[in-house]
Structure formats: C-alpha cells, structure tokens
C-alpha cells in the first residue's frame, strides 16, 4: 500500500486503512528508517536508542543504562558517548562496563561510523540496500519462513524500492532528502471521522461490504495472481474467487489497474496484465491507457497473450542488459542496452574507464576495491563529483571516450 498511501497524502486525500497498519508505522520499516536517520544525523538519540539492539547484538539493559548515564554526565549525544566508550576512553570512569558489553558497543560504533562515511559517496538507494544486506534483516526474515516474516520481508523490499524510485526521480537527491519526504508524509494528522475518506483494504477484508466506486490495483501476473501460486490450480482458483469478490463490491463503477513497469525488490521490472482481466467479457471493458499506448481492448488481449510466457520468467527478476519499451501500437518490444555491466563483467572494469550512471550521469572510474558482490568503485562524475558505488547495484554503462 506504500505507493498508494504516498499518492493520497501528496494530493491531500484522506484515507483509512481497514485491518492494517500504515506503511511507515510498521515496526520493520521504522527500524530501517531509524538506522538511516542516525547515518544522516548522528545526534538523533531517539533513533539510536531504537536500533542500538536491533537486530540483537548483546547490549543488555545494564550496558545501555551505563551508556546513557555517561552521555548525560558528560553532556554528550548518545552517539558521541558510544564512540568514546567503544574507543576505551570511558573505562576508568565507568568500571561497570563489562568487556563483552564494550565490544558489542564497539561493533555498533564501527558499523555506524562506516556508513556515515558512505553517506556522501553512495546514492541513497545503494547505501540503504548495502546497509540492509549487512544487517541481515532480509536473510533472517527469509530463514524464519512464517507468513508474518514473509510480510515483513516484503515490506522492507518495498521500502528499498521506494528509495530507488525516489533516487531515480530526483537526480541529485540525497538520503536526507528522502528522509525529509518520509517525515512530511508521516507527520500528517489522522483524518477526522466526519470526513469522506478513501478506504484501503485487502480483498479478504472486503467480503460483505459494498462501495459506490471500487479500485482493484496491481492486477498483474506476480501480484494478482501471485507468481508463486500461478501453477497451483487450487491456489489459482482461490485467487480468482477473491478477485471476483473484489469486483462485485462495486455498486456503480469498477476500476481495474495495472502498470507496465513496477519497482519490485529495489529494481524496475516489466509487468504483464493479470490473466483475470482477460477472462472478463471484452464487451464489458472500457480500456484506458496513456496516449503512448494507443491501444484498444482487442489489442490489449493480443499483446497479453503474446507476452505472457516470456514475462512470467522475468516478473520477479530483473533481466540485466534489457528493458521493455512500449511502441505506438501498444505492443511491447525488447530493446538491448549496449554496455550494461552484468555481474560477471564487474571484474573487467578498470580505473580510467568512462561509465554512465542513471542518476549521476557520466563519470570516470578513479579507484576499484573489493571482489565479487563486495566490489566497489569510486567514480568521479562530471556533475556531482566523486561517489563510492557498490557495483552489483550501480548498473553502470560503459561509454566511449
């Protein structure tokens, strides 16, 4: 619901979430944002307190109490106190600090200091994804394997997508800019009960309810139906039934929407309209698309059938080196992008090479370090100066001199 919530807030449209929590109020989202806030502003004690033992790192109540006491007595921010304790400057003044507690604080101090140094060298999306990977949030939730853990995993992925989307649409935006936008969005007061509001809910929650106008969004393969269930006949039938339930909630107007391109798991992927739309009588549909498509309902179905099989293979995975463009007739054509660096080509990069980054533009590689997934490059961009990039997320294109 994150993108819908953001759009409603930006346009001043009141809304209510039924049976759910606003995206930015979810625990896992607040945890990741707290890390990012400390990186942008190390003096943010409230955010540091939230993440000091998240994920668990063995910092007990006694250790935390001693740290806070030391900060108050010496008129320091919590982060300044953390650094001094980690560097051993406070051992004599606070003998109750255990060696284990101090080592755990030192580990956190080093982590935060490292990412503070990355703040002006990495793009917001690259820094956030690298941080989340190092913290192990996603791997821990994936290993847990419960429906709740999977939902939290998807929420963090959606946050990374939101940061990527923000970085792509604001070429010179920083991590601080993204956090400022989130703060503005989150600061809006709850809407008054007597105001007419948009109601956001799941298909399950909609059973037994009716509304004058209904929007069912995300009618795409991989969302409705879920890609993981698309080959399971019984699961597919259940999703078809739920979709029908949602459609029949509308008393006057029903809008079914899908996107051609969608950020998923931090990457921009092509989307294919849901098979459930195809199953509707064409005479009942009024197809509306951007003018670039110029499509009729009949061309929509023709396009969908011709692309469904290939799209299923890529719906959850970005195909490096290619993108799908919409032609004037509404049909998708595949376009190979020259010079996109695949993971196996990272090792072929060298200093002095000219590359192009979607957000930062043209630049020259001045240093390369690390190997494999940890490979990084310092690139001196013509317009924004030097940036440290994690190559597996940078999607650089090699250019001629």
> What is the tally of helical segments?
14
Largest sheet report = 5 strands, antiparallel
CATH third-level topology of the largest domain: PCRA, domain 4
- By secondary-structure content and strand pairing, the structural class works out as alpha+beta
Structure description:
With 401 residues, this protein is an alpha+beta fold. The chain folds into 3 domains: 22-183, PCRA, domain 4; 201-336, P-loop containing nucleotide triphosphate hydrolases (Rossmann fold, 3-Layer(aba) Sandwich); 343-398, Thrombin, subunit H (Beta Barrel), CATH 2.40.10. The protein is built from 14 helices and 13 strands. The protein has helices at 2-10, 27-40, 45-51, 61-73, 78-86, 99-118, 124-135, 137-144, 147-169, 175-186, 233-247, 275-278, 297-314, 391-394; strands at residues 15-17, 198-200, 211-216, 250-256, 261-264, 267-270, 322-326, 332-336, 354-357, 361-369, 376-381, 385-390, 397-398. The strands form 5 sheets. Strands 12-11-10-9-13 form a 5-stranded antiparallel β-sheet. β3, α11 and β4 form a beta-alpha-beta unit. α4 (61-73) packs across α5 and α8 runs antiparallel to α9 (147-169). The protein is globular. Mean pLDDT is 76; it is low at 187-194, 291-298 and 305-341.
Summarize the structure.
With 401 residues, the protein is of the alpha+beta class.
């Amino acid at each position: 619901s994150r993108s819908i919530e953001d759009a409603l807030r930006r346009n001043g449209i009141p809304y209510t979430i039924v049976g759910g929590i606003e995206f930015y109020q979810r625990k896992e989202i607040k945890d990741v944002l707290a890390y990012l806030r400390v990186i942008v502003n190390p003096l943010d004690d409230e955010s540091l307190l939230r993440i000091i033992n998240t994920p668990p790192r063995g910092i007990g109540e006694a250790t935390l109490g001693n740290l806070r006491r030391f900060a108050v007595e010496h008129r320091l921010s919590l982060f300044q106190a953390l650094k001094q304790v980690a560097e051993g400057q406070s051992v004599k003044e606070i003998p109750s600090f255990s060696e284990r507690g101090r080592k755990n604080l030192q580990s956190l101090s080093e982590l935060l200091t490292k990412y503070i140094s990355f703040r002006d060298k990495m793009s917001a999306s690259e820094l956030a994804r690298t941080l989340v990977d190092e913290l192990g949030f996603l791997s821990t939730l994936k290993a847990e394997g419960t429906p709740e853990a999977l939902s939290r995993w998807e929420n963090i992925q959606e946050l990374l997508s939101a940061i990527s989307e923000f970085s792509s649409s604001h070429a010179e935006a920083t991590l601080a800019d993204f956090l400022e936008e989130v703060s503005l969005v989150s600061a809006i007061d709850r809407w008054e009960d007597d105001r007419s509001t948009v109601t956001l809910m799941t298909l399950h929650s909609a059973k037994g309810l009716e509304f004058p106008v209904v929007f069912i969004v995300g009618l795409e393969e991989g969302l409705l139906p879920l890609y993981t269930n698309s080959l399971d006949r019984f699961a597919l039938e259940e999703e078809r039934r739920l979709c029908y339930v949602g459609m029949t909630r509308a008393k006057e107007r029903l809008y079914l929407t899908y996107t051609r391109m969608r950020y998923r798991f931090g990457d921009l992927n092509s989307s294919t309209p849901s098979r459930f739309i195809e199953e509707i009588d064409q005479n009942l549909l009024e197809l509306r698309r951007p003018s670039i498509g110029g499509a009729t309902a009949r061309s929509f179905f023709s396009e969908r059938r011709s692309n469904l099989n290939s799209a299923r293979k890529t719906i959850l995975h970005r195909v490096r080196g290619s993108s799908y463009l919409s032609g004037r007739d509404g049909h998708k054509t595949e376009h190979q992008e020259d010079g996109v660096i695949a993971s196996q080509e990272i090792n072929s990069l060298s200093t002095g090479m000219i590359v192009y980054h979607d957000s930062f533009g043209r630049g020259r590689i001045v240093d390369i370090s690390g190997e494999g997934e940890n490979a990084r490059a310092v690139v001196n961009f013509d317009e924004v100066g030097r940036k440290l990039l994690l190559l597996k997320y940078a999607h650089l294109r090699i250019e001629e001199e």
